[in-house]
Amino acid sequence: MVTQSQLLVPTLGPCTIPSPLANRHASKRRFMADDTRVLFEVEYRAGAPIDERSLEKSGPREKIFFEPAKTKAAIVTCGGLCPGINNVIRNLYYTLKANYGVQSVIGIRNGYEGLNPAQGEAPCELTDSMVEHIHHRGGTVLGTSRGPQDPVVTVNFLESMGVDILFTIGGDGTQRGAHAIAAEVTRRGAKIAVVGIPKTIDNDIKFCYQTFGFLTAVAEAEKVIDRAHIEATSMENGVGLVKLMGREAGFIAAAATIASGEVNFTLIPEAPFELAGPRGFLPKLAHRLRERKHAVVVVAEGAGQEHLADGQEEYDASGNRKLDDIGPFLKGKIEAYCREVSLPVGVKYFDPSYFIRSAHADAADSLLTEQLSRHAVHAAMAGKTDMFVGLWHNHTVHVPLALNTGEKKRLETDRDMWAAVLAITGQEDW
Amino acid sequence: MVTQSQLLVPTLGPCTIPSPLANRHASKRRFMADDTRVLFEVEYRAGAPIDERSLEKSGPREKIFFEPAKTKAAIVTCGGLCPGINNVIRNLYYTLKANYGVQSVIGIRNGYEGLNPAQGEAPCELTDSMVEHIHHRGGTVLGTSRGPQDPVVTVNFLESMGVDILFTIGGDGTQRGAHAIAAEVTRRGAKIAVVGIPKTIDNDIKFCYQTFGFLTAVAEAEKVIDRAHIEATSMENGVGLVKLMGREAGFIAAAATIASGEVNFTLIPEAPFELAGPRGFLPKLAHRLRERKHAVVVVAEGAGQEHLADGQEEYDASGNRKLDDIGPFLKGKIEAYCREVSLPVGVKYFDPSYFIRSAHADAADSLLTEQLSRHAVHAAMAGKTDMFVGLWHNHTVHVPLALNTGEKKRLETDRDMWAAVLAITGQEDW
Amino acid sequence: MVTQSQLLVPTLGPCTIPSPLANRHASKRRFMADDTRVLFEVEYRAGAPIDERSLEKSGPREKIFFEPAKTKAAIVTCGGLCPGINNVIRNLYYTLKANYGVQSVIGIRNGYEGLNPAQGEAPCELTDSMVEHIHHRGGTVLGTSRGPQDPVVTVNFLESMGVDILFTIGGDGTQRGAHAIAAEVTRRGAKIAVVGIPKTIDNDIKFCYQTFGFLTAVAEAEKVIDRAHIEATSMENGVGLVKLMGREAGFIAAAATIASGEVNFTLIPEAPFELAGPRGFLPKLAHRLRERKHAVVVVAEGAGQEHLADGQEEYDASGNRKLDDIGPFLKGKIEAYCREVSLPVGVKYFDPSYFIRSAHADAADSLLTEQLSRHAVHAAMAGKTDMFVGLWHNHTVHVPLALNTGEKKRLETDRDMWAAVLAITGQEDW
Amino acid sequence: MVTQSQLLVPTLGPCTIPSPLANRHASKRRFMADDTRVLFEVEYRAGAPIDERSLEKSGPREKIFFEPAKTKAAIVTCGGLCPGINNVIRNLYYTLKANYGVQSVIGIRNGYEGLNPAQGEAPCELTDSMVEHIHHRGGTVLGTSRGPQDPVVTVNFLESMGVDILFTIGGDGTQRGAHAIAAEVTRRGAKIAVVGIPKTIDNDIKFCYQTFGFLTAVAEAEKVIDRAHIEATSMENGVGLVKLMGREAGFIAAAATIASGEVNFTLIPEAPFELAGPRGFLPKLAHRLRERKHAVVVVAEGAGQEHLADGQEEYDASGNRKLDDIGPFLKGKIEAYCREVSLPVGVKYFDPSYFIRSAHADAADSLLTEQLSRHAVHAAMAGKTDMFVGLWHNHTVHVPLALNTGEKKRLETDRDMWAAVLAITGQEDW
Q1: A43-45 and B36-39 as β-strands: parallel, antiparallel, unpaired?
Q2: Of A142, B332, D78, D152, which cross-links D111 as Cys (Cβ 3.0–4.6 Å)?
Q3: Any A CB within 8 A of D334 CB
Q4: Which chains touch A (3 or more CB pairs under 8 A)?
Q5: Residues C364-397: pLDDT tens digits?
Q6: What is the model's pTM?
Q7: Which string of DSSP letters, residue by residue, matches A341-393?
């Protein structure tokens, strides 16, 4: 269990410089006192003691650490694509330049690679005209790549460039890399703030109940499921089989199932299932086909790995375990089983992952990215470091990077979201 | 200030019937103990005492009040259109029928009118094939209307039809009507649960930090603003003027501004503004045109009424004050002012309200409607009454209808959302 | 009736320069011989003589008039917005630069205004990075305005800038202006090609059976009609009333009606109608409401002007007659009539014109704009002038500007499109 | 070369019954005289003789063959999905019932299978409420399947059901089946009209310059290409590889390339290419990556089969040759080649075929399906048979099924569409 002291966020030093936002805001109440907290737990049983742990609430501080006119910020985007990265870049840029008036914002090219001058392309100075329209497009205009760099090399580079703040947009691997950078900064006694904005389309980072890009991904996935439903219902015994993102967590598969309302079986990593046998997926699918003549199946890419595993584990450059491909495997199994039980079947397989992740952020994610980015700037300008901006009970909070230990957030199958999936699909617990 | 006792929810009586969900759910943890609470306040200053007020958390109870096989539920939809109403109808229906196995679900036609046999159309029995595809369409398949009915007539009718549960989908007027019905039920000692699902595209109902349809409305509004931006930038001194919903609260205008990132002036009811004078809107707009040759202005329908009011107040059938039309008024004022200061200008006016409110729910709202509807059924089956399902710190909770006293939730201009609008538009506090 | 000699297109002189396309194209057959023609009429009655009139077919010529490396082209966009203008700009640019290798392409700012140095902004040199992404956005990046300029001033300016080719993107007013410019060029014996690409969202230019932007407008209008249908069916006696573009021609209203399949009454300028009386629109609408409880009405902006006219005619800067607003007029008439016959009614009025015209081109219009633009460049490089690129029996052709005499193409109510509207709406001929 | 006599359409007999449309149409001119023709060729070289071959123009005839009140029509949908099938069903139904007043319209289930009572499901009687909303959804509500049935069995079944008209919606295989049915009808001297509406998403049926569903497919494909472009540009040396439909004809690949404007290489069956060597695709791609750091490649499914073929040919139930999968093959080749030349590369592969074909018809295709369906009904009611409704120089015409000999329409690489692809991609002829 996380202790209160683990929830405290490091700072670079005392804040003595009046925020330039004071000139713009009529109301003092828009500043957030530094001792404002958000309770870690809001749910409790009547009569039980209230859990007093809390997280630091983000927001603009009246006094800040960095002097804007002398401050240089850098932005780096890492890992796989996710709707909203360009929004984050644009919002960071405008908040830094137009609101705080910082001197310079540079864009690191192609992920952490761009922080190693021996390997990557040189950074670019961001300008109004470069970022003006980028939120209408998916992807990242800065480019991305996978994998870490040596923190010593990185901090050398940041110091040589005169960077005061580094914003790291990426998943848990990226934020572990950011933590290593922050540690190297501390070791040197340098004054560089390292502030993360968590990016995971799978929504599997702890201390963020929802990450940007997730709702857009669900919306895009819903459209694909709708098409799979059309394929399935336009022939006899049609099966629409949709593989969705979700390496270790089934959030997209579950949420897209709920949003769609047309799915009959949802398979996620957190709910292992059997293929054959009385409670097995294949006989249940065959039963459904006999009853209703069609079915829609959604499978998260990390589901059912137990049926595929061959004892060997491989990892990609981001340190994510490589998965065998459950989609074609399941397609083959369905076809083989139906052949076996003499049930003619037509399986239409959809693998829309790149299509989904390269979408631009929808309005809900535009709102979320704006909030996270603006608060990341407030945190960094106030000298907060070695942290990311999390979302907690609908409040933005400061989360120490040290808490990001590599364990992923997973869908709890005894909570509401999975109950919704069971209610809607009619499938039983496996 | 709301007291703890005001936060308690009435019930029809003790729950003695085992929930049929027990057969479907492997895990007991999916049931929610009746004494689970959600803190009213989660934000506090370090050192200050924690506010212990709390709301009742919603969710399936292990024991329920109504015997499903003998239960008849009715659904009524009232007031203006809002994305997601059909999702609510569909989700209520499936949860009641497929999950709880209730005997019958009827649809009341055309709002409260349909609860008065002297005035309205007879209800219809809902079936699978009727509701199967309705979530893909906006509007309400049951029809809607404005205005209340005599609670005595209504309860007579409900009793004559053998209705055990009435779900009321509507705004604060509708929920006040529901409260009156619940009071009449209590007066008679009848056992009819009255459970609301708040519907307000303006997002202005208290105790729901976000209502369904709101995000869809923002997404649609963002598209309109984008078009207004195109009109404004395709000519010299073009002004795209967009009127959005928001009679007493500027949430849609503010959120669409943030999501869009292209708006220069956002006018909402909560932030009164001057037209002329050094801090006035018109000179500032003219200044912007001279500097940048185009501008995008978003105005909530309830904004600037102080400039229009003529002393007379009229009200519509729902009890909402009729507003003068700020859109054409502002268009005229802009044109007149620019003529006066010899600035050629082209104002393109957009009034997309009906277009926006008749959209179908996007994925985010599909998720929200599913959650609210399912929890409304859980509440009703457990005999909760005179309440609606609210959303609080991202938890669904039971909110007593008695708390809905007619005061609307308004955008607090000294909190984060308005700060975001000021940051993005660059406009100052008026 | 048009004579064959009127169908001949002027040229600046003999083509003696080998086309640079020869290096790129393996096949000679991709060049179009200059004497290739497209028949004016393809429909005939068996036995009748075939009409031998024909238009000049467009396409790349093996020999061209202008020497690319010394050629400077200018692009001007005039009149109201229409989906696809940016595509035309982009395609003209790339065909000129990347395919022909011309020296320079400049963009005239804000319509013909930009051809008058005393009045408009200076032109800008177009570059790859300026036009790269513009086809994803509606509007025109060059800006637009209404109204002509003195051809003498214009040609002075073109000569002073060293412009060899002027592409005029605009409606019939713009093309009449282009014709005047071409006449002034001829008078001076200058060698400037003037080539138009017709732009009219209303699809009302003769010799183009379909103009770019029209299909996108129909697609956008269909969405609006769908929302109007939802409003109409979500209440008792709901009427969705949609005003669409179409000043003198009802093509958008008719096509959107057909595409939608949900419209009950379509009112266009070409089919005058009565309001009252046995064949009148209002009694028929009331009849429909009594039978079916809802109705969708589409009205072109130029329809029913006979009911509004007050004897005074006004014209805008493009020379288009100003219309009274049929939309609100019709809304008022419907409400008044229903009050009179004691039929409660709710009219929801949609006026989406700016929303529609500022959309970006859909795929069909992207194809059309690419074809028209490329062929406009082929024509201009071959020294064709005083012409626009038309679409005739699905072939692109050269149309002399002299044929554009101000008479608009109108929907023929005794041909197929109006038959389709009658078939779908079930409305009778008025 | 097709002779004039081959262009003549069979009829069941003389038309003696006055069309019921006469009552609805004020204008006689809306009827089409039976001897109205559309020229086969409209393009000619000045001075050359005009080709006098012609096709029969479709449209409502004043006298018809079938007595509506006694007429029963059947609709069958065959082969793969294509946007617009439901529109065709809906439009056939409404034209038959609402305009002509035929007695009954039945839907054959699951393709030709449903015309064999020993094998398929029984037909269903179509009603207003069944077809009302189906045009908003992709797929086919009647179901589909591949493969023919014995024409003797089929005609036995049609006679037993009392069917007078059979509408066959399908590709060239389906229309060959329809031709066999018509032959069997003729052999018996039965009076059953067989009228086809060509359906091929690949746009590869002769005598139809554009088939329904094609433009929708191009629009959906354009969106996928846009996402592939985003993936390609969000990393160093990214390649977006998109496989599109097009077994024997590259129309979708070519048109999507033109509409998108972002493709660098387009591979289609009609333009064979080399992989290696100085003019090979792989070295050219590597060159592009070195110059521009990203590339987008579109490949039609039937392209490059020469690189895959293993001497064995297999066919599916519709008689289409089974293709090896060029997509993964090409991905592998690109990765191997880049490894060989030490060029780091990231290939993102998109295979959106099912997603595209299950879309609903966009507005352009809604217009086309309406036109084709209405004219198919006019033809059938006038006793035309053994024909399909084609689109020729933008006119709907009657095309004898006997002309559909199995040869597909292919993209002519020396004509305009391929010239456009070369112009836009900058690729040379291979």
Answers
A1: antiparallel
A2: D78
A3: no
A4: B, D
A5: 999 999 999 999 999 999 999 999 999 999 999 9
A6: 0.96
A7: TT---EEEEE--HHHHHTSPP-HHHHHHHHHHHHHHHHHHHTTB-SEEEEEET
